[in-house]
Amino acid sequence: MGSHVTGWRRLNVGVIGGGIGGMSVAIALRRAGHEVTIYEKADFAGEVGASVSCAANGTRWLHEWDVDVARGDPVVLKKLINRDWKTGEPVSVYDLDDYEARWGHVYNMFHRQYMHRMLKDAALQDTGKGAPAMLVVNHACEAIDLASGVITFRNGATAQHELIVGADGIGSVVRGCLGITPAKRPADSSCLHANVDTQQAVAAGLVDYSQDAALEYWGGQEGTFDKIVLSPCNGGKLLSYYCFFPRAKGDYVNQSWSDSADRPVEELLGPYPNLDANVRLHLAIGKEIRPWRLWVHEPYPYLFRGAVCLLGDAGHPMMPHQSQGACMAIEDAAALGILFGPRYFQGDIDEALAVYNAIRLPRATRVQQAAAKAAYNINERIGFSANKSTATYKVEDEKRVLTIEEMNAYDMYKDIEEQLAAQRGELFTANFIKGLPIGLELPSGAVVGKDFFP
User: Fold this and answer.
1) InterPro entries, alphabetically (predicted)?
2) Full-prediction pTM beyond 0.90?
C-alpha cells in the first residue's frame, strides 16, 4: 500500500465502523474527492444512548462539510454551570454568550441518535460535493493485511482498499491489527446514565433545567468522584444525565449503553443520599438507565502503520470529563480530509499519514490527559479552568490547564502546513506553532511560544 507519486489522485477508501467518527471521516474524504465504503459490524449503523457535546472546534467542520446541523436538533449552549452538591446553588459559572462571536461557531449539544442520523445523511446522500459513500452492514472486521490492504471480515467476505481508516471505537479490532496493545486500567469512578423527559418533569412540577441551555454539574469540587452532569439535547426536550460515583459503590463490566438492560432507579439514586433534592426528583423519573464502564488508557505510541490509520476512540480513548471525545473524532476526520484533499495530497499516502500522526497524536493526548484530571477536579475542565476567582479553585498547574482558547484558536491548516514543511524539507514561516498563534495569551497569563508550548 502507500505510494510515492506526485499529483493528487482519487483513492478507494475503506472505513471500519459506522458510528459518529466513521460517518464524519466518510464525509470529509467524500468532500476531498475520494471513493468511500463504510463497513459496520451491526445490521444497521446506529448510535444509541445519550447526549454528545460538540464545541466550536467540532462544529466548524460540520459547517465546512455542509452538514445540515439543524437536522441534529441541537441545543445551543449558553453557559457552563457548576452547582453545590447539596443546595444546587451555582459555585462557578462560565458564560458562553459571546462564544459564537469569539470563535465563529456555536457550542452544540446533540442527542447521539440524532447526530448520527445527521452525519449518516451527509455521508450517504446523493446531493452534496463528492460521490456518496457506500454503507455495508453486517461486516465485522476480523483482520487486515497491512501489506496488501485486504480486509477480512468475520462473515468470510474480503475487501481491498488503498487507504483504511479504523473508526471502530474503544474496543477497536483495527488497533490490534496495527500491533497496539492498550495499557489501560479501570477508572476510579463508575457511571450510570439516565434520560429525563423535560415535559414529564415540568408536568410533575419539577425544575425545568432545559431553560438554562447549559451544561450543568453538581459536585466535582471536593476531589471526590461524586459528580452529576446534566446536558440538554433534542432542542431541550430531553435531559441527559451522567451520574458518576466511586467504583467501590458499584462496578460494571460493559462499556456501552446499547447492549445492556436498564438498571433500577433505586440503583441510580443509591450513591447520592445528600444530592440536591431537585436533581434527585429528576433522577427518580429517569428512564434508559444504563451503566457505562470507564477505562483510563495510556496514550498509544502511534496512529498508523502502512496505509491503515486509527480515528477517534480507536486511536485515543479518553474519559468524558472534557466533553471532547466527539470533537476529537471530528477533528481526526477533518485532518484526513485536508491531508488527502487536492490542496495538499501529492499522491504519497505514507507522507499524509505521517503528518496525520504528527498533528493528531499530541493534541488528542493533551485532551486525553486533561480529561483524566477533570475526573476528580472540575476546575481542570475547559471553561471552569479559566474561573480563577472561584473560592474553591485549585488546579495542578495553572499554566498547563486546558482552555477554550487552546481548543478553539487552533488552526488545523497551519498545523498541517508546518508538519508538511518539515516532511518535505521546506521552510514554514507562518507565526504559528502546532496550530496555535504565537503570542496568544491564555487565561492563565501564559503566552503561546513564550511560556506555553502545545
Assistant:
1) FAD-bd, FAD-dep_Monooxygenase_BioMet, FAD/NAD-bd_sf
2) yes
